[in-house]
Amino acid sequence: MAKRKSKGPKVHKFRDKLLLNQWLISLFGIDPLQKDSKLRPFHKLANPIRDARLEGLDKDNLHHFYHALVKSDLFWNDKTKLSKEQLLTYEEHIVKHTQAINVKRHRPVVWKYYQWLSLLFVEIYLDRYFSDQESLLTSLNKYVDRFNNRWPEYTDMAYFKEDELNKLSLQNATGSGKTLLMHVNYLQYKYYSKKYGKENDLSRVILITPNERLSEQHIGEFAESNIGASNFSKEGHNLFTQAQGLNRVDVLEITKLGDKEGPNTIATRSLGDQNLLLVDEGHRGLSGTNAKTDENAWYKNRAMLCEKGFAFEYSATFDQAVSGTGHEDDYAKTVVFDYSYRWFYEDGFGKDYQILNLPESNDHEIKSVYLTACLLKFYQQLDIYSNKKQLLTPFNIEKPLWVFVGSTVSGGNKLGKDEQIVATDVAQIILFLNDFLSHKEKALQRMEAILTGSGKDTGLMDSKGIDIFEGSFTWLAKTISSGLSYDDLYKNILKLLFNTDSGGHLILDRVKGESGEISLRVGTSETPFGLINVGDAKALADHIESVAKQNELSLTIADSDFSETIFETVKESSSPVNLLIGSKKFVEGWDCWRVSTLGLMHVGKSEGAQIIQLFGRGVRLKGYNWSLKRSGHSNAPSIPQYIEELENLNVFGIEADFMEKFRQFLADEGLPGNERRRVFTIPLNVTYDFGKKLQIIRPKRKADDGKEYDFKKDAPVPTLGQLTEYLQLHPVVSNWYPPIQSIDSNGKTITTHREDVKLNAKHLSLLNMDELYFELEQFKRERSWYNLNIDKIGIRELLADTTWYTLYLPTDRLEPKNFEDVLLLQQVAVELLKRYCEHYYNYCKRSFIEPRLELRELTPGDDNIPKEDFYQLIVNGSEEQVILAIEKLQKELEENKQTLLKVGDLQAIRFGIHLFQPLFHVRKGGKITILPVALNESEFQFVTDLKDWTETNEKKLQEEGVELFLLRNLSRGKGVGFFEAGNFHPDFILWMIDRDKQYVTFIEPHGLLHEGPASEKLMFHHRIKEIETRLAKPDIILNSFILSWTKYPLLQWGIDQKVLEANHVLFMTDDHDGYIDKLFDNLNPHCNLIIDRS
């Protein structure tokens, strides 16, 4: 095909012309070119699987994501170009590769939804690339035609060419797990090349990294994934010697690729052009086609290595890196998946951030006050961490670290322009720290002004005259108001930040050797609080010493007696280092989760793309249960106060113009500037005197320590292989027949005959018992069943007994004819064992806990009653309309308005029967963060509907003497949960007091697309009646209801709606006006309450 003639003068932004990515999305029946679409195409695809509760494998060894996607409405229309069968094949490959990289891991990889989609997109592409490149090319170029016709006012995108199909780029945010994706991408390529008989076409696999430190890091990470990798060795490796093919990975720094062989370089041509190339930090080398730089040569060299091979490139910043380079359209056609930082942030992943930008000022005192305020921001994080360390443990918060980052100082006889600026920046930081330590009274005055004054008092105002630190010191303000003096605050800073009890002058120790390290300590303290590593330590130390003499400062600079470097330990929370002044090259790819305050020094003009990457280092967050999310977006049952300070990256800069560039980079990325945050406090009113003895189900307390019985701690250790009569009477059922139904002429479903088969000794001899053992260990770890004992003997004995399962499988599949059939038997065994594990573990849990359950009176100390006495609503200070909306809602709440309050994305409701109020809901993806966590849409709708119902029936309730109480039930770990239903924690507990009877009802407003009619949650309404009988309290009636947010027609369960309603599944959207009536109708047919239906 010829290139189309250009039509318009406009040029697409990089993110808007990712043709390959758009084409892949279109295969799911989503048209990225649809006009007036309110939802991004990516979000249409991702919405069915974005719920974090879908992470991990189901019992059938397939991802919950897969099940949710194929059940979604994407597969209910004829626009989808992928069949469910194709998707299943891809999913099985993903599972297989994931298992391969998990074999040696202590903490198995569990994919986030965007990672799983990344792997799925690569699967789809490689399948088509290897099976039919011509068809792939034709399909892609048809999409190019559609794209160009859709945007006539823009310059046309060129057609894909065959020699462009051998490169894929993944643009995933820093901290989103690119390295793990790389490992699986390697296995995916290896699989397809073998499948299509091309595994011998390539010479070797080469991973290109930016530097030696990252090379070593990658080799260690490959080892964790059970992939052979080592540093590339020049000895015995050239075009004419035997290469390793696809069997292992050679790791090589891009700086070592050259035109000629040399002591530290390898001639690129000697490695040939038939390699599988993996490029880490793929943005490196995209400095422009005409630039006479090393980086441009690097780009050409790596392109040469895969000219007849294949390449995967990984970067968080292709968007920024390609701008103005001449490579923009080339890369736009290779991006297979785009999950850059703006989407990462929007989904709640990573830290929040605050840009503390002070306009340019020549006033030395204002700069000193600014740096003092930044020091206080960091100290506040340290102090919160120190005081709340135990509470923060589930959230995996690391000890805060203050990092200054800028260009490298390479030294030599003369510092270059950028190096001089960085050296000056570092000197300015050192002078400030020395001043803070040497002039206590000045420091006290500045701290008091910052914590008690306004921006007008301190001079710390932005260009609009607003205090840039407004609302930034809530923790310190509380500490000071509690009676802490500024003198004591200063002492605490010395101890916690500077690792000294007595203060003193600043001492710089230059570590011997070539490490480039200078450690910082104070006075007589031997413990360093800081570290400088910006390249040439000698050149930098000389510069600082010169500046110190010019300013007549008492600063000690000496050579250390120790040669041991400390940079590699800084990433650990156990490190005493609280301040790191480093060059960008040390932060690039650095595996550190500690960065909490980021100071930006000078970065050269050509290094703009790396700004976002440096920022990405700081916003990395492990999150609750390794969710990678901020607590407000997690499923945490309760959130410690002030955790938002630790989940926030403070960003400030030495030079104002550079900070403005940084803010502009964020804006270009589609992110808010967050120059200042507004924190609104709204009283949380808790009802402590309930007036009634509300009953709640809890495990009994032990006589010895008064703590509740805990299955994991107090029960006998469950051991795999122990069969019980219960498990034989209630066998595991595994169906390997395809879910196909036939319908006769009368419309009745015909059930196909299924053969019930068993595994025998011959089948067992073909199974890999080691793999079964590792699979079950991983399954156990994913579910935190740490007290379950698994051994290989138990596995074999269990499979030898056929009384505990029913297996539906065609008999001919039990006679393996090839290796694929043996793999099927292995999969069957895995699924049976996983289903047994869950069945057995829950049985043991039930057997232990159920006899130890009791009804206990709800007290104000219950975990479901909030300990906080206020909500915090956090919003970016630039969101003026949102702020006005919050202020309006705040005022209406203060006026005690009882109606449903709604302003913009925020809703609030006061509801007297709920034991604490108000209750909030904020639109998903909205611009407000609420702590404690607000209700989701279905939960808030239920509360609103129940409030309307109680107001309608208020008179009747009073006449009959019926009282209602409602309480939000926290999720796992805190609230009331039921092992009987797979550790089910219903969202609400509703008490109805009717004379001498108390109806305790557990209510779950929730979507049901990911459940089935036999779901333990749905069957729980039967189980709770068994608990009621065992508790033997005739005046306490227990019930459970599921309020389906999913409309009835979408379920397609083949069960009549009235039958579901009789089984306590009510439909809150289809039957909005009647479902609350039905809930109370169902509570008890003998209840005295007659509902007003007028």
Overall description:
- With 1094 residues, the protein is α/β, with parallel strands linked by helices.
- Among the domains are: 352-675, no CATH class; 676-686 and 858-933, no CATH class; 699-852, no CATH class; 935-1094, no CATH class.
- The chain contains 37 helices and 38 strands.
- The strands form 10 sheets. It has a 9-stranded mixed sheet with strand order 10-18-17-11-16-14-13-12-15, sandwiched between helices. Strands 3-4-2-7-8-1-9 form a 7-stranded parallel sheet.
Give a topology summary.
Blueprint: H1 19-26, H2 41-46, H3 64-71, H4 84-102, H5 113-131, H6 133-150, E1 167-172, H7 178-195, E2 204-209, H8 212-224, E3 229-231, E4 245-253, E5 257-258, E6 266-267, E7 275-279, H9 294-305, E8 310-315, H10 318-321, H11 328-332, E9 335-339, H12 341-346, E10 352-355, H13 364-387, H14 389-392, E11 401-406, H15 417-438, H16 440-452, H17 455-458, H18 474-481, H19 486-496, E12 506-510, E13 517-522, E14 530-533, H20 537-550, E15 556-559, E16 579-583, H21 584-587, E17 595-600, H22 609-618, H23 643-646, E18 648-653, H24 656-668, E19 677-683, E20 685-686, E21 695-699, H25 711-714, H26 725-729, E22 732-735, E23 742-743, E24 749-750, E25 756-757, H27 761-766, H28 769-782, H29 792-800, E26 805-808, H30 819-849, E27 853-857, E28 870-876, H31 880-894, E29 901-903, E30 906-909, E31 916-917, E32 919-922, E33 928-931, H32 937-952, H33 954-960, E34 962-968, E35 988-994, E36 997-1006, H34 1016-1031, E37 1036-1044, H35 1048-1051, H36 1057-1062, E38 1065-1067, H37 1075-1083
Parallel strand pairs: 1-8, 1-9, 2-4, 2-7, 3-4, 5-6, 7-8, 10-18, 11-16, 11-17, 12-15, 14-16, 17-18, 22-26, 36-37, 37-38
Antiparallel strand pairs: 12-13, 13-14, 19-28, 20-31, 21-27, 23-24, 25-26, 28-33, 29-30, 30-32, 34-35, 35-36
Helix pairs in contact: 4-5, 4-7, 5-7, 13-16, 15-20, 28-30
